[in-house]
Amino acid sequence: MQRRAFELQLPVGDDVEEELLVPDLAQRLGEIEAPTLVVVGEEDVPYMHAIADRLVREIQGARRASIADTAHVPSMERPQEFDELVLGFLEEAA
């Protein structure tokens, strides 16, 4: 679902039937001021890593974390590691 939302922000052809709620969302990543942690599974597909890289690059102060032996849903595949990462990040951000 997240990938689909991001794909809708990518340049598309004239035959698109979907209307974006926020047309320039991908260009507004730099406006995000909230502490941001981008979590990916090390075994996820390359384009998810590319999206994570872009988010970290364009959101000031964003951090990236990878979880070993996981693919697309690290929160379900390795819940303990995911919880430790997120809870640690939230404590630091508080």
Index terms:
4 helices, 94 residues, alpha+beta, single chain, globular, 40% helix
Overview of this protein structure:
The protein is α+β, with helices and mostly antiparallel strands and 94 residues long. 40% of the residues lie in helices and 11% in strands. It has helices at 2-7, 46-58, 74-77, 79-93; strands at 37-41, 63-67. Strand 1, helix 2 (46-58) and strand 2 (63-67) form a beta-alpha-beta unit. The radius of gyration is 15 Å and the shape is globular.
Can I get a quick summary?
The protein is α+β, with helices and mostly antiparallel strands.
Q: Which structural category do the helix and sheet elements fall into? A: alpha+beta
Strand proportion, as a percent range, falls in 5-15%
Main sheet specs: 2 strands, parallel
Query: Would you tell me the overall average pLDDT?
Result: 86
Helix content, binned percent: 40-55%
> What is the β-strand count?
2
Ends distance = 28 Å
Low-confidence stretches: none
Number of helices: 4
| Envelope shape | globular
Query: Based on the structure, what is the oligomeric state of the protein chains?
Result: single chain
| Sequence of strands across the biggest β-sheet | 1-2
Rg? 15 Å
Order of helices and strands: HEHEHH
